[in-house]
Write a structure and sequence with these properties.
Residues 1-33 have low confidence and may be disordered. Strands 15-21-14-20-18-19 form a 6-stranded mixed beta sheet. The protein has a 5-stranded mixed beta sheet with strand order 1-2-11-10-9, with helices on one face. It has a 4-stranded antiparallel beta sheet with strand order 5-6-8-7. Helix 17 runs antiparallel to helix 18 (483-499). The protein is 33% helix and 21% strand. With 540 residues, it is α+β, with helices and mostly antiparallel strands. It folds into 3 domains: 32-69 and 200-279 and 511-540, 3-Layer(aba) Sandwich (D-Maltodextrin-Binding Protein, domain 2); 70-179, D-Maltodextrin-Binding Protein, domain 2, CATH 3.40.190.10; 284-508, Dipeptide-binding Protein, domain 3 (Roll), CATH 3.10.105.10.
């Protein structure tokens, strides 16, 4: 009788336990997939979204700014400039005046009206901080902003500037916040926003810094409504942790470049459990040499590194052929980038000879070359959360050791990395060009300015004897109205950079996507920094 009672109690306890476990699993499933009747889509990013201000830079993320804020015009497939918040526009014969006819059915997420007055107010707060944004040459070229009427806005430029419409498509800084988002000072760069209020398809619902952000569908959105009700972005800094979270069902998608190792991507793809996609080549993955450092100021050292870097082995053993080898700073299929230059071939003996010529000699019994009693050591700066950078750095470290170069790897979190990059605290820096719509003109323009919104290239290249000439050529080409002259000038600029060996292009990088089979609408947008959150749907 006592045994029966014990057994009965045991069965009751187990029933309750299993019931609770089932409920817990169902709750967990609903957290990822649905919240009641809501469709929820979840992915991860390596850093926090920042304060979602389209008029500032780090630590803001491009993709999240693009979810909330919109531009006058949109960069479409093949570089087509499409109407967006402006339904049409006119350009004067001299190329200096742009009149934008705005949509009259657009509201901000707080219900306020989008019109020419708020467009002017957003432009003016950006222009009040020109020095922070002058990596965009359009900022320097804008002379007058005018409200013609409620839905007509006019820009007057100092000069005819051919990339005007293209630069208006950028995710930042020329996008629009509502009147209620402005601080009392009116200066959104210095004093931030009262709230992230835009016209885009998403509204920030909840945010816990460095943990997650939840976006909900904007009920006031004028365009095509998103397919899911909410997007949850989880901050996961480590690639392997991201893969584990995905396999456990905590994520619906992994998206981006460098977010997981190529080994992990290959494993997930070959498992057959998930859908995978690879974008067309976007930007160029490259190493930037700091010509302000004494060692790197020597052209023979830069040339030696070009010849000692085994790109083919990296393409085969790290990328498994997923990315193609790069020999030029920009992919040659972009406008103005088809330049005839001789690539730097892998040649270890030539690299050794160049090091000898630079005065760095092999010393018997010592692993690393020396000059004046000092070993040849170079510091390579990389982002700690970028799995691909880490793999390439370790591979290159081993290869360069064979010719007597000690490569010190310095791994930094994203914000610390960029601080060190702008300060020039490195010999070699992992970087990449910016892809369309920025390449090649905006990337090259950033070389001419030390703007914190641009890139570290200005400082890194300032040790070159012809830097002033280079800057002048770049500024000139941006204002050239004759197409043939523009082509010739771009070719001269790109040839100068190639011959000075200040960049070491590695591969033409691509975005990857790995997602669950019940997720649809995953694709790659023309701007590589954007994620197709409005098209994505889930089939529960």
């Amino acid at each position: 009788m006592q045994k029966r009672s014990i057994l009965a109690v045991f069965l009751i306890v187990m029933t309750v336990f299993l019931s609770l476990a089932a409920c817990s699993q169902q709750d967990a499933k609903e957290t990822v997939a649905t919240k009641g009747d809501k469709k929820v889509f979840t992915f991860s990013w390596s850093g926090d979204i920042g304060d979602l201000n389209p008029h500032t830079y780090f630590p803001n993320e491009f993709y999240s700014q693009a979810m909330v804020y919109e531009s006058l015009v949109y960069y479409g497939e093949g570089g087509e400039i499409k109407p967006w918040l402006a339904k049409s526009w006119n350009v004067s014969e001299d190329g200096k005046e742009y009149i934008f006819h705005l949509r009259d059915d657009v509201m901000f997420s707080d219900g306020s009206t989008f019109n020419a007055a708020i467009v002017k107010k957003n432009f003016d707060t950006v222009l009040a901080n020109r020095e922070q944004h002058d990596w965009i040459e359009l900022i320097n070229q804008i002379n007058i902003t005018e409200v013609i009427d409620n839905y007509t806005f006019k820009l007057t430029l100092h000069n005819a500037y051919y990339p005007t419409l293209q630069e208006l498509t950028y995710v930042r800084p020329l996008r629009f916040v509502a009147e209620s988002a402005f601080p009392a000072s009116g200066d959104t760069f210095k004093d931030g926003l009262t709230a992230p209020i835009g016209t885009g398809p998403w509204v920030l619902k909840e945010h816990k810094e460095n943990e997650y952000a939840i976006f909900e569908r904007n009920d006031h959105y004028w365009g095509e409504k998103p397919q899911v009700d909410e997007v949850v972005v989880k901050v996961i800094t480590d690639g392997e942790s991201r893969v584990l979270a995905f396999e456990k069902g905590e994520l619906d998608m992994i998206f981006g470049n460098g977010v997981i190792s190529q080994d992990s991507f290959k494993f997930l793809k070959e498992s057959g459990k998930y859908e995978t996609k690879i974008s067309d080549p976007t930007a160029t993955r490259t190493l930037l040499f700091n010509t302000n450092r004494e060692t790197m100021s020597n052209k023979n050292i830069r040339l030696a590194l070009q010849h000692a870097f085994n790109k083919d082995a990296i393409i085969d053993h790290i990328f498994y052929g997923i990315e193609n080898k790069a020999d030029t700073l920009f992919p040659q299929n972009l406008t103005y980038t088809d330049v005839a230059v001789d690539p730097y071939e892998y040649d270890v003996e030539k690299a050794k000879a160049l090091l000898d010529e630079a005065g760095w000699k092999a010393v018997e019994g010592k692993e690393f070359r020396e000059k004046d009693g000092q070993p040849l050591q170079l510091e390579l700066l990389l982002i700690s959360t970028d799995n691909i950078q880490k793999s390439i750095a370790e591979f290159a470290q081993g290869d360069l050791r064979k010719i007597g170069i000690d490569v010190k790897l310095t791994s930094q979190e994203l914000n610390t990395f960029w601080t060190a990059a702008f300060d020039g605290n490195y010999d070699i820096l992992f970087t990449a060009t910016w892809a369309v719509p920025f390449d090649p003109h905006s990337y090259l323009a950033s070389i001419t300015t030390n703007s914190s919104g641009g890139g570290p290239d200005h400082y890194a290249l300032s040790g070159l004897s012809f830097k002033k000439e280079l800057d002048a050529r770049i500024k000139q080409v941006l204002l050239t109205t004759n197409e043939e002259d523009r082509i010739q000038q771009y070719h001269k600029i790109l040839t100068m950079l190639h011959e000075e060996a200040v960049y070491l292009p590695i591969s033409y990088q691509s975005n990857i996507a790995v997602y669950k089979k019940n997720i649809t609408g995953v694709n790659f947008l023309p701007q590589e920094v954007e994620i197709p959150t409005t098209k994505i749907d889930r089939i529960n």
